[in-house]
Amino acid sequence: MRNWISLLLLALSLSATADQRVFYQPLNRDASLSPAQWQALWKATAAQGGKTLIVQWTAYGDSDFGGADGWLANSLRGAHEQGLQLVLGLYMDAAYYQRINELDSAGLATYWKAQLGRSLTQQQRLQRDWKLPVAGWYLPMELDDVHFNDQHRRQALYTQLQAFRQRLDAPVHVSAFSAAHLSPAANGAWLQQLAAVPLQVWWQDGAGTQRLSPWVRQQYLSALPCSVGVVQEAFRQSSRPGQPFTAVAATPEPHTGCHPTAVFSLRYRPWAKGLLTLDSN
Fold it and tell me: Which of 156, 164, 263, 275 is 20 to 30 A from 193, comparing alpha carbons?
């Protein structure tokens, strides 16, 4: 109990920079937390200024994290009781990144259509069975300018997301990152088109992965329309390319300007230390 109280006091003593929107990426090992630990975590998140919790997924591959009466659903009910609005992630294929690397344009469009269908099924299941108060839906499949470098692919994606958005009853969120395969101006125009679907588009600032230099990242940030939000990465990647992803916690880079911001992720924030474990070398 003392450790949980200490975590809450730590959150109260941190700087006034609030994590108003914070991503949480559920992992099966988080099932080990007790109800009291979840309560301490959500209290600390709210104390640090948290208003909205963006849950990256509620189904990942074959795992639904216990379903409507499982640990994830129950923990999220506790988060809402602490005043956090919930943006619930939908279905994520565990082989998503491998699959999109293997597919040509026609195959990618077919694959995306199938995955959007699975996310729609998950959204219906969440409404019917989980019955959580929902402020929005998050589509877990990240976008990038490598697999969507081709204009025809981007147009096919836009058409599919338009149809998908019309099926949902709350704002839809999606995130993207840049690998310098589109120019900053072209990338900004693409994300602006997606925002007009309408979607809440989030651009990952890349400070954690550090694939691009700070100067290049700044060019991409400067080219974003104000409607596109910025995800501040609160980690630094410790794994090398081709290795399983690992990272350590780090202070997110501050962003000023017109963009809404969110932090990725709760697992790397100081008040989650000792509760949500990291993958690190």
Answer: 263
Measured CA distances, 278 to 45, 166, 178, 206 (Å): 17, 37, 24, 19
What SS3 class is residue 254? coil
Confidence at residue 12, expressed as pLDDT on a 0 to 100 scale = 45
pLDDT of residue 232: 97
Strands, E assignment, the chain: 21-24, 52-55, 59-60, 85-89, 91-92, 136-138, 143-144, 172-177, 200-204, 229-233, 235-237, 247-249, 261-264
Cβ of 104: how many Cβ atoms within 10 Å? Answer: 9
Tokens found for residue 152: 């025809």
pLDDT of residue 4: 54
User: CA geometry: angle at 231 spanning 227 and 235, to 5°?
Assistant: 170
Strand pairing category for 247-249 and 235-237: antiparallel
CA distance 205 to 217: 7
Residues 6+ apart with CB under 8 A from 103: 111
Residue 97, pLDDT > 90, answer yes
Beta-carbon contacts of 155 under 8 Å, excluding residues fewer than 6 positions away, are: none
pLDDT tops 50 at residue 281? no
**45, 267 contact by CB (below 8 A):** no
Q: No. of H helices and E strands in the chain? A: 8, 13
For 19-272, which CATH class? alpha beta
The answer to whether the CB of 37 falls within 8 A of the CB of 71 is no
